[in-house]
């Protein structure tokens, strides 16, 4: 069983304060991950790390920078967060290794992502837990743009033939217009009106974009809150099933 799990940036950081970790939430997630017996590929978002610098430098998924210093500041913020995640996992004897998208791929002029993942597959085969993240990435004719953790999740899910995908964040699922968690989403148009944007600084699009992206996958994806992470990792179907 191959599982791709994203820890949302809003979960593991304090999204309102620049470069501030939510250590309690990260430790709790690491505890749950340490109990997982699946082949697990992890991705984490940016939260108050990468998004803060992306906004500062005007860089987004479509707006690039040709300033290497700006790109490095965004990337460096993400690798700092990645180190925190790796460290909490190593504290629990999880064999976690980093995968940095900036060094692993690029986009063509039409924004199509080319990110080969044989190295990630080999890591999994050798019993490691790859831990990737949203990042900056070289983008033909744009300099460097943002790649969201969700896009990495999609690439991992396709390239690793994942059986299931989990998006663990600060929400219990995808909410409808009445504030209730939607059990199952099979069609974007059916829920488009109910999906709003993200309140705090988030250059990669909020929940609507996430749902759209996840619907493209073959494997089912689940959006759920931190309290349901153990349940998801032991085969449960918490929150909202997408696809
Ligand atoms: O938090 C964004 O990743 P996300 C990555 O998964 C950066 O959308 C560097 C802002």
TrEMBL record:
<dbReference type="Pfam" id="PF00696">
    <property type="entry name" value="AA_kinase"/>
</dbReference>
<dbReference type="GO" id="GO:0016114">
    <property type="term" value="P:terpenoid biosynthetic process"/>
</dbReference>
<dbReference type="InterPro" id="IPR036393">
    <property type="entry name" value="AceGlu_kinase-like_sf"/>
</dbReference>
<dbReference type="GO" id="GO:0016301">
    <property type="term" value="F:kinase activity"/>
</dbReference>
<comment type="function">
    <text>Catalyzes the phosphorylation of isopentenyl phosphate (IP) to isopentenyl diphosphate (IPP). Functions in an alternate mevalonate (MVA) pathway leading to IPP, a key precursor for the biosynthesis of isoprenoid compounds such as archaeal membrane lipids.</text>
</comment>
<feature type="binding site">
    <location>
        <begin position="6"/>
        <end position="10"/>
    </location>
    <ligand>
        <name>ATP</name>
    </ligand>
</feature>
<feature type="binding site">
    <location>
        <position position="46"/>
    </location>
    <ligand>
        <name>ATP</name>
    </ligand>
</feature>
<feature type="binding site">
    <location>
        <position position="210"/>
    </location>
    <ligand>
        <name>ATP</name>
    </ligand>
</feature>
<dbReference type="GO" id="GO:0005829">
    <property type="term" value="C:cytosol"/>
</dbReference>
<keyword id="KW-0418">Kinase</keyword>
<feature type="binding site">
    <location>
        <position position="47"/>
    </location>
    <ligand>
        <name>ATP</name>
    </ligand>
</feature>
<protein>
    <recommendedName>
        <fullName>Isopentenyl phosphate kinase</fullName>
        <ecNumber>2.7.4.26</ecNumber>
    </recommendedName>
</protein>
<dbReference type="GO" id="GO:0005524">
    <property type="term" value="F:ATP binding"/>
</dbReference>
<keyword id="KW-0547">Nucleotide-binding</keyword>
<feature type="site" description="Transition state stabilizer">
    <location>
        <position position="15"/>
    </location>
</feature>
<dbReference type="InterPro" id="IPR024192">
    <property type="entry name" value="Fosfomycin_R_FomA-type"/>
</dbReference>
<feature type="binding site">
    <location>
        <position position="51"/>
    </location>
    <ligand>
        <name>substrate</name>
    </ligand>
</feature>
<keyword id="KW-0808">Transferase</keyword>
<feature type="binding site">
    <location>
        <position position="206"/>
    </location>
    <ligand>
        <name>ATP</name>
    </ligand>
</feature>
<feature type="domain" description="Aspartate/glutamate/uridylate kinase">
    <location>
        <begin position="1"/>
        <end position="216"/>
    </location>
</feature>
<comment type="similarity">
    <text>Belongs to the isopentenyl phosphate kinase family.</text>
</comment>
<comment type="subunit">
    <text>Homodimer.</text>
</comment>
<dbReference type="InterPro" id="IPR001048">
    <property type="entry name" value="Asp/Glu/Uridylate_kinase"/>
</dbReference>
<dbReference type="GO" id="GO:0102043">
    <property type="term" value="F:isopentenyl phosphate kinase activity"/>
</dbReference>
<keyword id="KW-0067">ATP-binding</keyword>
<feature type="binding site">
    <location>
        <position position="149"/>
    </location>
    <ligand>
        <name>substrate</name>
    </ligand>
</feature>
<keyword id="KW-0414">Isoprene biosynthesis</keyword>
């Amino acid at each position: 069983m191959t599982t791709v799990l994203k820890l949302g940036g809003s979960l593991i950081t304090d999204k309102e304060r620049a470069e501030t970790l939510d250590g309690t939430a990260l430790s709790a997630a690491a505890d749950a991950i340490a109990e997982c017996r699946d082949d697990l590929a992890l991705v984490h978002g940016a939260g108050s790390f990468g998004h803060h610098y992306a906004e500062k430098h005007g860089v987004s998924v479509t707006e690039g920078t040709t300033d290497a210093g700006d790109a490095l500041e965004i990337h460096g913020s993400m690798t700092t967060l990645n180190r925190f995640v790796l460290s909490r996992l190593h504290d629990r004897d999880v064999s976690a290794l980093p995968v940095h998208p900036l060094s692993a791929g690029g986009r063509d002029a039409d924004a199509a992502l080319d990110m080969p993942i044989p190295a990630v597959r080999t890591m999994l085969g050798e019993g490691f837990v790859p831990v990737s993240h949203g990042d900056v990435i070289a983008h033909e004719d744009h300099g460097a743009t943002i790649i969201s953790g969700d896009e990495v999740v999609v690439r991992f899910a396709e390239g690793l033939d994942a059986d299931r995908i989990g998006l663990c964040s600060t929400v219990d699922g995808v909410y409808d217009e009445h504030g209730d968690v939607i059990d199952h989403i099979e069609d974007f148009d059916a829920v488009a009106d109910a999906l709003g944007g993200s309140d705090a600084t988030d250059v990669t699009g909020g929940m609507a974009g996430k749902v759209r992206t996840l619907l493209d996958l073959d494997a089912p994806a689940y959006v759920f809150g931190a309290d349901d992470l153990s349940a998801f990792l032991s085969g449960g179907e918490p929150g909202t099933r997408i696809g």
